[in-house]
Write a structure and sequence with these properties.
5-stranded parallel sheet; 15 strands; alpha/beta; 9 helices; 26% strand
């Protein structure tokens, strides 16, 4: 009897795919890796992988259940065009939507919504607090994502560090968590987790080995829930020197980390050699 395939739940932005600003190309131009654009937004290229990473992804899809696992909304996720066949499962909105062949599982979403209503302060309260306290001098956009969480797009160099710390304390007392990723500040309900959705996909696929990667505070629960995890040398978790018992901190930063993570997934997901 064939062994069950591993499940690979990976964050996307700044883990597998990278904006131009996040590529981290520190080598001489002539030695920079060739890049493949995997996302276009408003007719402009937005996100990239190395061509080597792009060639590894379909191979990973053959060896494992590859599950893109993102805080992006469904609409934002669906404009990404990853190499290889479309994954059967994808986790969007930080676990608020579980896509099955591109369609949200309504029973899953309803269960998540019920849990949020029961366990944490309402979205409207958090949204109102952000609108009242965030200074228009450094806020560029207020956004509500899938009626589940909120985020701000900010001018990072003008953002007061003390304001972020104060917001985190305020949110903590209401069952929410705050994450700063690039130019975005997220406020997300604590029960809204990538790990819960990953466990559900593992249940449905029968996977007994779970592998994960991510770079931000919103990925910490996912990395801790997986049998093995990896984080790149950049991002919120790296800046905090965050560690988990089965989590490997990689030295690579930028788009090179995405390539390294895929190699780690492939090695860990490989079926054992016959004895």
């Amino acid at each position: 009897m064939a062994a069950a395939k591993a499940l690979v739940a990976s964050d996307l932005d700044r883990t597998l795919i990278y904006s131009a600003a996040a590529l981290g190309l520190t080598m001489p131009d002539a030695r920079a890796p060739r890049l493949l654009c995997v996302e276009v937004h408003e007719s402009r290229p937005l996100s990239y992988m190395t061509e080597t990473a792009a060639a590894l992804l379909p191979e990973l899809g053959d060896r494992a259940h590859f599950v893109p696992t993102t805080t992006r909304t469904r609409k934002q996720y669906q404009r990404i065009n990853l190499p290889g066949p479309a994954p059967e499962y994808a986790i969007c909105a930080n676990g608020g939507h579980l896509l099955v062949d591109g369609v949200s599982d309504q029973a899953w979403h309803a269960g998540v919504s019920a849990r949020l209503a029961a366990e944490c302060a309402p979205l409207a309260e958090v949204r109102a607090h952000l609108e009242a306290t965030a200074d228009p001098a450094w806020v560029r956009k207020h956004r509500v994502a899938e009626d589940l969480f909120v985020y701000l797009v900010v001018e990072r160099e003008l953002l007061p560090e003390e304001w972020v710390k104060s917001l985190a304390v305020w949110a903590e007392n209401r069952g929410w968590t705050v994450s700063l990723q690039g130019r975005k500040i997220y406020a997300v309900p604590k029960p809204l987790t990538k790990s819960a959705a990953m466990r559900e996909v593992a249940r449905r696929t029968g996977a007994t080995l779970t592998l994960a990667a991510g770079d931000s505070l919103l990925d910490a629960d996912l990395l801790l829930a997986a049998d093995r995890g990896w984080r790149p040398g950049h991002g919120e978790l790296a800046e905090a020197d965050w560690a988990g018992p089965a989590v490997t901190a990689l030295p690579e930063r930028g788009v090179a980390a995405g390539e390294r993570i895929l190699r780690e997934f492939l090695t860990a997901a490989a079926p054992p050699e016959p004895s």
